[in-house]
Please model this.
Amino acid sequence: MRVLVVNTGSSSVKLRLVDPDGALADRADPPLDNGTVSAERLATEVERFSGVDAVGHRVVHGGSAFRRPTALDDEVVARLRDLTGLAPLHQPKAVSGIAAMRSVLPGVPQVACFDSMFHADLPPEAATYAIPREWREKYAPRRYGFHGISHAYAARRAGDMLGDDPGRLVIAHLGAGASLAAVRGGRSVDTTMGFTPLEGLVMGTRSGDVDPGLVLWLLREAGLDPDEVGDGLEWRSGLAGLTGSADMRDVVSRAGGDDPDAALGLAVYLHRLRAKIAAMAAALDGVDTLVFTGGVGEHQPAVRAGAADGLGFLGIGIDPEANDAASPDTEITASGARVRSLVVEAREELEIARDVRALLRPH
Ligand SMILES: Nc1ncnc2c1ncn2[C@@H]1O[C@H](COP(=O)(O)OP(=O)(O)O)[C@@H](O)[C@H]1O
Ligand SMILES: CC(=O)OP(=O)(O)O
Ligand SMILES: [Mg+2]
Model:
């Protein structure tokens, strides 16, 4: 089965055609027009992909209803659209991509795979927010967690690379969005993103954790309205808010050239990253393997080195030469370090193609 995978992130759309043996047959990276994917644009791109047997879509938020890969029909698309408020940066783009692809390839089965599904069985102590019972009963908010397709792939790949169970695994998916997962036995037991993809690490344009008291203060005392606060925290915070650029390449090179804003931005990013790696290790009772993935995780040695710096007490240590020379997939463990550190290319399309085949294969 040849699967065309549509990966709609907050900042990009990636089209990948995956052959039955898992080989990448073709790829295209069309630009986002005004934040959405138009049917016309997709039609042009898709003409070049021949022999598509099925389409797999990355959808960030599955809410509480979608815990597994799900075949798409009108009703499912409508329910995904209803989840927009929970992932305003992502869900409208995914839904527009699904609508476009269904009109361009009618009759080809289409499946949604969710970033949240890998974290669907988080232990209650990791999934539960300490808020009033009444809200928990009425709105059922929980830590959903995201980037799960990437985390699931990285966990499997780490096992292949080590030729063994990776043990207590901390995965750092560092891209435009960024999150950590604590994984044991192939299952997520904790993660840094929450009810929405805004919680946790410092990201390209997102704040990650802030004091909820700050949000209340901005609304009540500073007189901002909810849309202004949302826009600020989603689009004008993170590296962009601290340095003027959401692109880690820029930030690292300017930080090296003594730009004080870039130096502070990188320091804040790394301070949070180290703290949260330690938190994931705590959820696992220790760590055996650390994986870096995503655009920043794969291509920014300074970020990997900065993340490991100060985590020697956990047994983490990165070899400076291997780290500077690393091209994924590779190991960068320092000699004598107890924790194995790996760099893994994010291959969400392979995980999605696998899920699509498993769902559509005749039983
Ligand atoms: N080849 C590269 N070299 C250095 N940094 C990169 C490279 N590719 C991506 N990045 C960094 O990764 C971030 C984007 O992550 P990526 O995973 O590509 O995006 P997305 O989350 O949209 O899939 C940017 O901060 C960018 O600087
Ligand atoms: C969930 C998420 O933040 O995805 P991305 O990194 O693609 O924006
Ligand atoms: Mg991404």
